[in-house]
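Slide 14.
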Amino acid sequence: MRRILNLCVLCVVLVGSVGVGCGVVDDYVDCNKICNRYRDCVNSQYDSGKCIDRCFDESRSNPDYNRKANDCSACLETRACSESLPCTVQCAGIVP
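Slide 15: predicted structure.
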């Protein structure tokens, strides 16, 4: 009986810790994708490394920037370079 109780407690702890971690994943911004996409599609000389660092730092400290970067990333998700023009509104301020 004690073994079953311990197993149940372990399951509750694991499920609880997964639930806590989900908020972090929701706030994750794929700065690599945004900045490298700009370099690949718009300007091959663009310093995507600096862009990634700035994007990452800003998205952690500024909820509005984080939201805008997530919108930019979502817009670019399924578009080829030639189809990404509509994303300029969502990506303005994230990349030039």
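Speaker note: The first helix runs from residue 2 to 26.
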